Amino acid sequence: MIKQNVILNNPASELDLPRHEKRLPAEALTLDEIKALLAVPNTRDLLGIRDRAILELFYSCGIRRTELCQLQLSNFNSERRTLYIRQGKGKKDRVVPVGQQATVWLEKYLAQSRPRLNLHHSEQAFFLTAYGEKFNPDVVTRMISEMMTRANLSGKGSCHLLRHTCATHMLEGGADIRYIQQLLGHESLETTAIYTEVSILRLQEVHTRCHPSGKTDASS
Is 195 a catalytic residue? Predict the structure, then answer.
């Protein structure tokens, strides 16, 4: 009505519009909790090797569950220890590094498990189910949730928690927030910046160093 000169003033100009809630993600897993989770798969059988490789990849690269399900054999470069993510969120491609430990398990899966799971020789999906098919994201979520329960971590989350843990541990290890943004495939740095709010270790270090009550006075 203002644009058409029906009224002179906007009666809604002073109204405060509702804002989206900004909630912190769930607390990241500790290193001990990660070790407990990685120890769950029985790596003496082919499915256990596959499951360990999936856990290692989630924790090492922080990829999304849909990105993991869409991985093709050609997307992993063992020599360079890189993973090519095609058409991630926002239809964007990116290349991410794969940690040395994750690389070892991926290579073990490719050598020992995948050939026996490859019932359909034309299937190019990287990770295969017991039926020789590519994974559905919901199946991956249930699988990770079950392993969380077996590691006494039930109720904490599943795939996205491993992504969050990857980012948090990178930040606490001294990684620049911009590199974490690139790793996770966030379009906006603001999205990644939420990890600076949940990483309490650095704040604790500064508090201990700078606050008068940060250290115990043994003489009192």
Answer: yes
